[in-house]
Amino acid sequence: MRLSRYFLPVLKETPADAQIVSHRLMLRAGMIRQASAGIYSWLPLGYKVLRKIEQIVHEEQQRAGHIPMLMPTLQSADLWRESGRYDDYGEEMLRVTDRHGRDMLYGPTNEELITDIFRSYVSSYKDLPLTLYHIQWKFRDEIRPRFGVMRGREFLMKDSYNFDLTKEDAMHAYNRHLVTYLRTYERMGLQAIPMRADSGPIGGDNTHEFLVLADTGESEVFYDSAITELSFGDRNIDYDDVGQCQAILEEFTSRYARTDETHDEAAFNEIPAERRRSARGIEVGQIFYFGTKYSEPLGATVDDGQGGRVPVHMGSHGIGVSRLLGAIIEASHDDKGIIWPEGVTPFHCGIVNLRQGDAGTDAACADLYSALVAKGLEPLYDDRDERAGAKFATMDLIGLPWRITVGPRGVEKGMVELTSRRTGESEEMSPSAAVERLVEIYEAVREA
Ligand code: 5CA
User: What's the rounded Cα separation, in Å, for the pair 167 and 170?
Assistant: First the structure.
């Protein structure tokens, strides 16, 4: 993409109403624009990152055998009356009436709708286990939408739903989700710690939230610092292997880590004092096992193979896809702007032409651009007639992890400069060496 043809409305001024750094940077980098309180338009740069995050979520869900589908945003109130949640959900649910006077709602979550689909088609244990998921917009009429995409009213969520014959099978689905989440967040350059939490309006006793530690996080958390040394890394997982998934759950949840709702001071004080931490965190996902809470009232039963019919055991598992943009920026930025991890960057690298209009640098940039595209990489070429300082500032603000600078002196020697956004270190090399280096870097990311 050539910047002169792109739509990147960066802001010079720091928006006064944005309280946290990720919100400020998303506005300044022209990624989002507020449409109304807690509701945002995704401008091209923000939309690109959102799609990258979705892609990683899809890949990791499908790797574990979970099946993608899509349910609507508007739901009929009748199903929610059947489960008993229509009244319980309270003012966070946006209720609407259609022209026929039928009660509808903008879905805050999808347990009822998916259970209705399940009961309509599945009636035998032979069709289990089954895990379906979608990535869809949700609406929660939050009393205080704030911090940009962190606490929106409209937000994008990945929600999966497992259907199993027994509690044991459903717990395997729970553990399997935990494993997929560890991998998913690491691919986005995040450390997200599973913590014991409260289940709120979704229900059930078994639940973990995934928290990214950040001073601006809305959740208060307590944990054993030893947990931050764990990393999922490059493990080969058999998602059908009950023992393997269970072992990973134990490895990642055996240390004390809880949100304030379930915090237990006595248990916390058993951790050696030097490892006790209280901090703030951003909740980027939550997994639940709630048994037959929805299958029973909605009559989602299966033949159990022994002549009886039993309600299925279920769980639901969410990832805050749009919130993740904010979380990643909170975890990865400096005073100049965003620093995207390679896994989610909107463009693989920037190209800065230091002397636009000069035949030599223009031609070198055009060649470099084609060479990168030929290798499947997507560069953002700043071909505007701007000062070098302004071009660097824009690149630093939007946070592409790599920048290639092309200037007249370098071009004479057949050299360009490759700069890491994270370390600020630059290296002079030939254009083809720069392309090869980036190919290697992004191949390693793709394999992750
Ligand atoms: N049905 C379950 C799991 S699918 C559910 O709704 N879980 S949840 O309430 O925990 O939401 C899942 C994730 O969505 C949260 O962990 C959080 O990352 C994200 N989320 C929740 N509310 C908001 C919000 N107002 N703005 C942005 N993201 C949100």
Answer: 5
152 lines ligand 1 (CB under 6 A): yes
Q: Please give the model's pTM, rounded to 2 decimal places.
A: 0.97
Nearest-angstrom CA–CA distance, 129 and 144: 39
Q: How far is CA 378 from CA 346, 386, 438, in A?
A: 9, 22, 11
- The pLDDT-based confidence of 369 (bands split at 50, 70, 90) is very high
Determine the Cα–Cα distance for residues 182 and 195; give it in Å rounded to an integer: 12
**pLDDT tens across 108-164, in order?**
999 999 999 999 999 999 999 999 999 999 999 999 999 999 999 999 999 999 999
The tokens describing 410, both together, are 């370098």
Ligand 1 pocket test, pick from 66, 286, 330 with the greatest ligand atom count within 8 Å of Cβ, gives: 286
CA 215 / ligand 1 centre spacing (Å):
20
- Which ligand 1 atom lies nearest to the CA of residue 284? 18
Q: How far apart are CA 149 and CA 128, in angstroms?
A: 36
